[in-house]
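seq as requested:
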Amino acid sequence: MILVVSDKFKGTLSSEEAGNAIACGLFPLEEERACRIVVEAMADGGEGTAGALGGILVAGVPGLWRLPGGDMIVESAACIGHASANLMCSPLSRRSSRAFGDAVIRALRMSAPHGRVFAAIGGTSTADGGAGMLQAFGYAFYGGDGLIEEDITPEIMSDRVVGIEVPAASVIEQLRTRLCGLSDVRAALCDTGRLSALDFLEQKGLTDGDEKAVILRAFLRMREMLVPDGEESAFDGAGGGVGFALASVAGVSVVSGAEYVLARILSRRKHPRLLVTGEGSVDRQTAGGKVVETVNAAGRRDGIPVLTVGGRVCGHVQYQFVVAAGKGDVPVDAEEAARRVREAVGAELPRIRSLMDTAKG
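struct tokens:
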């Protein structure tokens, strides 16, 4: 079996569309090697995670899905992602993650008393350190004049907040026992010298250096007030700091979304002869626990060859076999993107055969 588990090619192809384009390029191997090609939807905690886990959308509740077995999942991309007109009309420093927190609380109330709720962290358009989400959880933010009623944003956090009150122990216990975060990246909150939430600000809509300074100040104030001992998780930078609020502040378990989804797939698609993955841009951020990095790590661990397909391949990437399907530009539409992927993979079939033969030997 050849198992194709590609991430979406952002802006052009969904996970399934990218996987099917890759499979078309590999098609001659199916009969030639008597090796079935299987495409599985793959995600890392961002958009498409609920679908990859077999979720069914709850009618009338954006971002909320029921999973097989009765658990629920909330996608932050649907609640506070780039499709949110209310958020995108404001500067990044004036956006709040409150809507995601509200959706998580709603999922906890709608699910079975002991059911789990997964918070899929990825694809957000906010960078408030998860402050707005914490408000929805019951954390109270105070300024010099008392309780701040409006949604907390980086601007408010950096300039007005002087104290934060933690909710009752019973609330924290429910969050810790029933909630699990699925993060799309391993990154620090704001540490320099390594991948952090600050590296993702431009793609969220950062306007200038002054706005970045406001966001950094908000991050540092939150960390000082809520995690004074400085301990942090590997996922604090996810979702513009939503990972920080979940893991380091509330003490919720947060794991790699890509690892979680891939483990579920491999539990039913055992012993593939070749793993194939891809994403729109294979670059520095890919190494932060994204789908491509996770699939390549699984291949190294289990001794399975891995083929990686990138719409763009930026800089030096250390993966076993990388195919660049781009031309340095953005495809005009999904059909053009799929054609490029299909043809790029097809052109490399001789090397792919050698890769499979070497592994077999």
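The longest strand covers residues 274-282.
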